[in-house]
Specification:
about 40% helix, five-stranded mixed β-sheet, Transcription Regulator spoIIAA, alpha/beta
């Protein structure tokens, strides 16, 4: 369900979640990774996305959502929304560098 792009970056394709939301949150409890959620083909419910964001904030890790540009305005401004996986990986890498430098 959550694939590791590197030891500290998790990648979740929204279409793979389906009805397994409980399994998703159980798996997240075991990981302390920056998380990329790919909603380019299927958007998870606002409740699930918000729960994921809250979890990532609690563990002080990055949360990035991949969304088509035209849908990004529907989400809060403090969410990190990007249009492609490449941009999501770049964003997380940049955030990690900032954390390492103490920002």
């Amino acid at each position: 369900m959550i694939e590791l792009e590197s030891p500290d970056i998790g990648y979740l394709e929204a279409a793979a979640v389906g009805k397994n939301e409980n399994q998703l949150f159980s798996k997240l409890q075991q990981l302390t990774v920056d998380l990329i959620v790919d909603c380019s083909s299927l958007v998870l419910s606002s409740e699930v996305l918000n729960s994921l964001k809250v979890h990532q904030d609690k563990i002080n890790k990055c949360f990035v959502v991949i969304l088509p540009v035209e849908q990004q305005g529907q989400y809060p401004e403090d969410w990190n929304c990007v249009p492609t996986k490449t941009e999501a990986l770049d964003f997380v890498t940049f955030e990690q560098m900032q954390r390492d430098l103490g920002f």
